[in-house]
Write the structure tokens for this entry.
Amino acid sequence: MGHDIRVVVPAQPRYLRIARLTAAGVATDLGFDLRDIEDLRVAVDEMCAVVIDGAGPDVELELAYRADGDHLEIVGRCAQAGQPPEIHPVAVELLTMTADEFSVDGDGAARTFRLVKQRRDSST
């Protein structure tokens, strides 16, 4: 059975630590191992940085964390105009190594991301 946690922070890099800490806390509750928690922290930081890039001082980053069984889904939304954000090729490589699924999108009014991290079976 899943539950949602919602967090809203200013869309500024100095507040991304809150996004990382929340992700780590939820992942700990799901039984993620330390390596997966660190991977998740890196992935959350990368995805948040992409959607807040260029955000003004009054813009907010809305995050929703959904824990369900052995996976955690994080959806972020930053209300700012512009084209869908592009992820730098180095960041894509990093996200491929640290997340199970990820995507970014934009509709002209907001930039969004979706990130999924699956808990690995500790017996493998």
